Amino acid sequence: MKLKIFSGSAHPDLAENIARRIESPLLEDVLGEATCMRFPDGEISIKVQTDVRGSDVFIVQPTCPPVNDHLMELFILIDCLRRASAHRITAVIPYFGYARQDRKTEGRVPISAKLIANLITKAGVDRILTLDLHAGQIQGFFDIPVDHLYARKVLVKYFRSLGLEDIVVVSPDVGGIRMARAYASRLKAEFATVDKRRSGGSKVEAFNVIGNVEGKNVILIDDMIATGGSVAAAVELMKEKGAKKIYLGATHGIFCGNALERLSALPIEEVVVTNSVPPRDSYPPNFRVLSVAPLFADAILRIHKNRSVSALFHDDVEQE
Predict the structure, then answer these.
(1) Among 146, 164, 208, 302, who pairs with 128 as Cys (CB 3.0-4.6 Å)?
(2) What is the SS3 assignment for 96?
(3) CA 20, 24, 26, 28 torsion-angle sign
(4) CATH topology of domain 152-290
(5) What's the CATH number for 3-149+294-310?
(6) β-pairing, 204-210 with 190-198?
(7) pTM of the model
(8) Catalytic annotation, pick one of 196, 203, 216, 244
(9) Do domains 3-149+294-310 and 152-290 have the same CATH topology?
(10) 196 noted as active-site residue
(11) Hey, which bits of the chain come out as E strands?
């Protein structure tokens, strides 16, 4: 069965890098060709130029801004490949949009993450491959197999290379405690968390830090950075509590609005993110982007060959 990788317009560079790592004398021309056009009224039209009959197809499409456009592209591309008789279709979604709306926190609000999961499934996809979901329970929103990768293997390797001592890994909120503990375990570091309250969509008030950061090198870990409000409040609090150097690590660097300017003005040694979403053309000097293409290439090959994906992180799984 042939392996084919397609990309929407969200992040073609990532798809190309994944395909380049997979291609070999036995797997030539892995990257398929599809054209995406727009009708005058804005409707999306997609045509697949590559024969996919009986193929094992992977669609690389993070649902990053503009989120709704990229979601529609994904739906239409799935339908196009299904009608072209692809044997199996896997949606590779490095960044899963609408993930923050994963439960009802008050009356008369949607659970948008579940709705998006239903729509992707109904479009005809067979399985999902994703990275660092905002909430782990979103895996259960799908009625098809979900392979959930973790970027910590990439980020931990980088932070180890810095040779830091007296490290404390900090979660900027209670929701990120599990992730931060996993990083702390692998970096053999101490752990702390910020007790915060959010007073609006982008306004955050940090109240206290639970743990000791005085005189320590702090690695602040989060799954995503959108406006930068949470991490900005956490960084200011770390400095007030006597932190020595502060590093910021996140899987998804969305950087909405003036987030880059806000973060570059903070007393941070370095901001480290992955290329799960398309990198900007330019970043401030202390920003670094790490590639997750090798991680996804390995996972795609394992899925294609019906091998265990969890073996990718057997030595990297948090023991409960």
Answers:
(1) 146
(2) coil
(3) positive
(4) Rossmann fold (3.40.50)
(5) 3.40.50.2020
(6) antiparallel
(7) 0.94
(8) 196
(9) yes
(10) yes
(11) 3-7, 34-38, 44-48, 56-60, 88-93, 127-131, 146-149, 167-171, 190-198, 204-210, 217-225, 245-253, 270-274, 287-290
